């Protein structure tokens, strides 16, 4: 798969009139008011020319040490290392210590200008193998306040199975994971396909060596997602959200 071209910078004057709101992350974040939800241009244009994204996860260690909660930060880049998005996790301070990868949370996705372009909401739910009647569910909004789709876990006895739908409930993609999701001396791929079985891409958990697995995996990790270049930016955003869910489900320790 060829590398994507560098992501063009978004003109600053397009969002000059947006109101900035406080956030606990290290970068400034601009909040959209309710009146601006349907008037601003697409906030996901950074994904228009992309066919692959590399994701680095880092645990916010200070939050854990000072009992402010277990929260991750993700950096989403193109293959040529251009930063596309920074993703900040928000949750109640105690859930990360007790619920681990199943914790309810919100993910705020900011572009390089500090504008919040997407929000991902994840309520608490059990895994499919524990309680099949309460499965994982993500709501994806872009801009925050406008639903663009959902990711829904489907019950399966062995293999991970997820269904991606648009805002109208129409099936877009299926994700069928491997029988063994443990990343041990190998990369683990989760193929993505359309309802008719046509492949559109995959998400991959990278094996980074035994030393990393033993010492650094709880603090930092890397994975990625590849998809067809001609997908809509909303479809690419949903596949990115599904990739983050898979990381929480199987690799967040």
Describe this structure in words.
- The strands form 2 sheets. A 12-stranded antiparallel barrel has the order 3-4-5-6-7-8-9-10-11-12-13-14.
- The protein contains 4 helices and 14 strands.
- 33% of the residues are buried.
- The longest helix has 19 residues, at 233-251.
- The model is unreliable at 1-29 (pLDDT under 50).
- By secondary structure, the protein is α+β, with helices and mostly antiparallel strands.
- 14% of the residues lie in helices and 34% in strands.
- Its cofactor is Ca(2+).
- One of its GO terms (molecular function) is phospholipid scramblase activity.
- InterPro entries: Scramblase.
Number of strands: 14
List segments where confidence is low: pLDDT < 50 over at least 5 consecutive residues: 1-29
Taking the sheet with the most strands, its summary is: 12 strands, antiparallel, barrel
What is the percentage of strand-forming residues? 25-35%
Secondary-structure element order, as H and E?
EEEHEEHEEEEEEEEHEH
Dominant shape = globular
Which structural class should the secondary elements be placed in? alpha+beta
Mean pLDDT: 81
**Sheet with the most strands: spatial strand order:** 3-4-5-6-7-8-9-10-11-12-13-14
What is the alpha-carbon Rg in Å? 18 Å
Give the CA-CA distance, first to last residue.
31 Å
